[in-house]
Specification:
Strand content: 5-15%
Distance between the termini: 60 Å
Number of strands: 13
Shape: globular
Radius of gyration: 23 Å
C-alpha cells in the first residue's frame, strides 16, 4: 500500500485519479467549518474539479472546527497533507480519485482564536459550514435563535472568545470592518430549508445582542446564499478504510459516496466565488423549489426508512429498500402524502423524483446505516417531516402515513428494537426523548406534548388521533403489522 501524502501521489496505482495541479501553488480563499465526509465529497470535490481544469487556484480550502472532537479529523488529515481518497460506489463499478482542494486545517481552540484570525484575513472570501441541521441553535417549534442556550449565552457575554461558529464569524467580521476591509460570504451547505436565510438570521440576531451597529453592517454588506446540497455520503469506518487499502491506498479517513451529486446555489457572493457552475453546479434565483423537493422527499424519505429499519434490526438504508414492507411504506407516504406538497422543478416532477431517490437509496454498494440516518431525530423530524405535515393538514390531504412515521420514531426512542436489543443513544436529547417515549407506551398523546418539537400540532385532532392510533397499534401488534395495515388501507383511526 502507498501512504497517502503529497510525496507519494505519483506512486499511487495508475487507475487512481489524482490532482493534476500543483498543490504547493494553491492559495486559500475558503474557510470551511465543520469539515467532515459530506463536505469532502461535495463542496471540496466541486472545487477540486475546477482545479483539475486549471481554475480556482486561489480558492483553496482551509478546514476548521469548533468542537474538541474536530481535532481528531484535523490530526488524521494533517498526517496525509489534507488529501482525501474519494471512492465512488457505483453499482456498475467502484472507482476512486484523490482530491486535493484542501490545504490546511486550523488548530481547534476553546476560544476559536485561530479560526477568527484566519477568517479575518481578507484573502478569505467565503466561509462555508456543514454543522448539521441541529447546529444552528434554533428553537424547532418557532425557528428563532434560542437565546437561552448556554453556548449562545456565552457568546453574548464574551463575544471576543466565542464557542460557536456563528460567534466566531461575527468576531471575524467585526475585525474586518474595524480594519476597513470588506466582508466575506457566509455559505451554508447544510440540509435546511432556506439554509442561507437561516444562517443570515442566526448571525444577525446574535450580533444584535451586544453590537447593533455591527449587526447593521453585516445586514448591509454580508451575503448568505441559499443552496440545496445532495450526495449520499456514508460514515467512514473500518470497512471504508479497508476498501481504500484494497485499492492500494493507506488513507486514515477515506470517503465513500454514491454516483450522484447535485448542488443548486443562489448567486449571492459579496466577495466573489469560484466558477462552481463549470464543475456542474446549478446557479439559479429559484433555489427554494429545488431544496423543497430534496428536503421534503429525500431527507424526509430517509426518516421514513431509518426509524422503521432500526426497529426491525435492518442495518442499512439499502436493506430497508430491500424489505417489502418498509419499501411499500416509503413509496406510499412519498407518493400520496409528500408529493402533493412538492412543486416540480425544471426537468423533474415529484413522482419522477421519488423514482430517482428510490434507485439511489437501493444502491447495494452504499453502506449507509439506519443509525447514521436516524441520528438527531429531534432536529430531523422537526426540519424534514413536520413542515410537510403542517402543509398537508392545511390542505386537507392525508396524513396517516406521516403520523405513522412519527409514531415509529417515538417507538424507536423508547430505546429497544422489536427483537429486544438495545438502541444506543442516538440524539443529543436522547435521555429526555427516551423518558417521554416510555411514558407514551401507555399514553401516546404524551409524546406530542413536546412543544419544543411539535408546537401546537398536538391540538390538531386529525394528526393527533392518527398518531395515537399508530403508536398504540405498534406497541400492541408490532411495527410491521401496522405498516402493512397502512399500506393495505386497512389502517383506521
Amino acid at each position: 500500500m502507498i501512504d497517502l501524502c503529497n510525496a507519494h501521489l505519483s506512486d499511487l496505482p495508475a487507475q487512481i485519479t489524482r490532482p493534476a495541479y500543483d498543490r504547493t501553488a494553491l492559495t486559500p480563499g475558503i474557510v470551511h467549518i465543520g469539515l467532515g465526509n459530506f463536505h469532502r465529497a461535495h463542496q471540496a470535490w466541486y472545487l477540486h474539479r475546477l482545479m483539475q481544469d486549471g481554475q480556482a487556484q486561489d480558492w483553496a480550502i482551509i478546514g476548521a472546527g469548533v468542537r474538541a472532537g474536530d481535532a481528531i479529523m484535523r490530526d488524521k488529515l494533517a498526517a496525509q497533507d489534507y488529501l482525501t481518497t474519494l471512492i465512488e460506489l457505483d453499482p456498475a463499478g467502484i472507482s476512486a480519485e484523490v482530491s486535493g482542494a484542501m490545504i490546511d486545517f486550523l488548530p481547534v481552540a476553546d476560544d476559536n482564536a485561530p479560526l477568527i484570525a484566519c477568517m479575518s484575513d481578507p484573502a478569505i472570501r467565503i466561509v462555508s459550514l456543514t454543522v448539521t441541521e441541529g447546529g444552528y441553535y434554533n428553537d424547532p417549534a418557532t425557528g428563532e435563535l434560542d437565546l437561552s442556550h448556554d453556548d449562545i449565552q456565552h457568546d453574548i457575554a464574551q463575544p471576543a472568545t466565542p464557542r460557536t461558529a456563528f460567534g466566531a464569524i461575527i468576531a471575524a467580521l467585526k475585525a474586518r470592518r474595524d480594519a476597513g476591509q470588506g466582508p466575506f460570504t457566509v455559505q451554508s451547505c447544510d440540509n435546511l430549508q432556506g439554509n442561507g436565510d437561516v444562517t443570515h438570521k442566526v448571525v444577525v440576531t446574535l450580533a444584535q445582542q451586544n453590537d447593533p451597529e455591527l449587526a447593521d453592517w453585516i445586514e448591509t454588506n454580508v451575503t448568505f446564499p441559499n443552496a440545496m446540497v445532495d450526495c449520499i455520503v456514508p460514515a467512514t469506518g473500518p470497512k471504508e478504510i479497508a476498501l481504500a487499502q484494497g485499492m492500494g491506498i493507506a488513507d486514515a479517513a477515506p470517503v465513500t459516496h454514491e454516483n450522484f451529486r447535485q448542488w443548486v446555489i443562489e448567486d449571492k457572493f459579496c466577495a466573489g466565488r469560484p466558477a462552481w457552475e463549470q464543475a456542474g453546479a446549478t446557479l439559479t434565483d429559484d433555489v427554494h423549489s429545488y431544496e423543497s423537493m430534496k428536503i421534503r422527499m429525500l431527507n424526509a424519505g430517509h426518516q421514513i426508512l431509518a426509524n422503521a429499519g432500526e426497529l426491525l434490526s435492518i442495518e442499512t438504508i439499502a436493506g430497508c429498500m430491500a424489505d417489502p414492507d418498509i419499501l411499500a411504506l416509503f413509496e406510499k407516504v412519498e407518493r400520496t402524502e409528500i408529493a402533493p406538497q412538492v412543486d416540480a422543478v425544471p426537468g423533474m416532477g415529484p413522482l419522477e423524483y421519488v423514482a430517482l431517490i428510490g434507485t439511489r437509496f437501493a444502491n447495494p454498494e452504499i453502506h449507509d446505516t439506519t443509525r447514521r440516518v436516524a441520528f438527531d431525530g429531534s432536529s430531523r423530524h422537526a426540519g424534514f417531516i413536520l413542515p410537510i405535515l403542517r402543509d398537508a393538514l392545511a390542505a386537507g390531504t392525508p396524513v396517516q402515513g406521516l403520523a405513522l412515521v412519527e409514531a415509529l420514531w417515538a417507538r424507536m426512542c423508547e430505546g429497544t428494537r422489536e427483537d429486544g436489543t438495545a438502541i444506543a443513544p442516538n440524539d443529543p436529547a436522547w435521555d429526555a426523548l427516551t423518558q417521554t417515549a416510555k411514558a407514551a407506551c401507555d399514553t401516546p398523546a404524551l409524546w406530542l406534548q413536546q412543544a419544543h418539537i411539535y408546537g401546537d400540532l398536538a391540538e390538531n385532532a386529525a394528526f393527533a388521533d392518527a398518531f395515537c392510533a399508530a403508536l398504540a397499534g405498534i406497541w400492541a401488534q408490532g411495527s410491521r403489522a401496522v405498516i402493512r395495515a397502512y399500506v393495505d388501507d386497512a389502517y383506521s383511526v
